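Hi, here's the filled form for the chain we discussed.

Project: internal
Contact: R.S.
Residues: 554
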Amino acid sequence: MRFVDHLDERLQHCIRVLHLPALATGTLKVLARIDLDAEFANTLQEADPHKRSGVLSWAALLSDFLETNSDVASLEETIESLEGWGLVQVVGQDPRDPVVPGAAPLRLSFAGRVCMGLAPGTRTAFEIQEEPQTWEIFHTASQERAFIAVRESDPAAAHRSIFIAGDERVSHVAGQVAMALCLRGIVAIDAYAAVERGAGLLNSLLKQTEKARGRRILCLPDPGIVRLAAVCSNARLLWIEPEVEARRDKCILDAEVSRLLGSKELNDGRLIGVPDSTLAVPRRVNTKWESLIVPTKIQWELRQVLIHARYRLGDSYKQPGRGKGYRLLLSGLPGTGKSMCAEALATTLNRPIVKLDLSSVLSKWLGETEKLLAQVFDVAEAARAVLVLDEAEALLRQRDGGGGGGGGGLGALSTGVAYLLTRLDSYTGVLVATTNRSRDLDEAFFRRFDDFIVLPIPDAPTRRLLWEGQLGADSGVDLDFVSRQFALSGGLIQGAAIRAKAWAGGLERPLDTPLLLASLARELDKNDRSTLEVLVEPYRSEVTSLLDGLETDD
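And the returned structure, exactly as it came back:
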């Protein structure tokens, strides 16, 4: 194909796609000839009173195209349309243009050169519609959700989206739109960064580019700033319901984007990013679900918890008005395994764990407690972590104003109760709250948990397994006796066993029942419990000697 034939074909294509006025063909040909015909360009320069090169004056254009003044309005409409599409530059129509003497000069813009075929631009084959198409305005709070909507409409448009910040010239953006339409037949504009200062730009863009035979999509979070322009240009508004995965500052992260990225085997942190925070640091744990030594009934309840959690975190679960997450409340005396259950849940779900330190978020300053709580929640949510609220009764019992001390005491949390209620509903991760005073929890908080499990003091068979796990089956301790005699939590058993093994090595004596009972006495005393219960026969005298540091005759 000869270059002149190529130009003519591209020109006719551009006229059809952008639905330009009839006089646009001749006008563009004249402007293109300036760039192609040096002799013609020199002739125009010589004829120009101000000897301007590479441009065509408005006065010369009038004399070339019109013999009478009856068609001046048609030509003005044509120039306005070409300039509105960003195909030509008309110096003198914008306050930011330089002051140029004489009739306004015109020339092809970069976008005009591409659409005309003077600059390279790969064009894909597409069908040109017979009638003009209107703008489609996709609006949703999530920028990622808008991207997914565009991607579902046309992958090429999503891949070549035009990003605008709001401070560009409308002619520059319109030119980009014109190029995309002429080359691909579809264009998508990401205007999320332009909402605050780009209202004028977007309104002008919709009006100036309303007539085209190509699909045009504008994506923004709030359609309010373009409603009037949408009416004037017959644009179509489409609200896209977001499927929220998590939040990162003001950015709403979309579930579908995370799913697509996750298919590339990225881990959670790399998948959605984790904000830097000194209050909360996600960490991995390795507590196996099988390591939980609890009564059979509790084992079954925990298995049901795991099934329930996986369902609420899965793709099939959708609940309007609530985050796609799971909330578990564990109650029980200290040492019954509440924290261990939370760690086992995190390990099984392959998630890191984040612990909320109450002392780090309390503040005497108004609004500061909510801000710090939000930071912890945001880190846990972004990391897809299991967020653990230890001693939840201190955090969730403040609705009555109880404990309202001064300064940075627990009363500082009273101002954050409304935030906590909302955040519990919207949290998209796994939250585990532990307490040993479940009756102190406010009812509004209590009913927001999806499951509630009470971890009791282990029964005798379970205590036997715990002692054996700590000391071994072949130790010199009467495991049946200590398991049957003492109703202890797993934490007390672990503490007593570790101390007993340490004493056995340090005192160079066998690990036997009296030594274990003496160690248990120290553990009970540490936990503000009476030590008299360990002074049982036939070990009473030997245990007393060990505790008092006296030598025995045995």
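Let me know if anything looks off before we file it.
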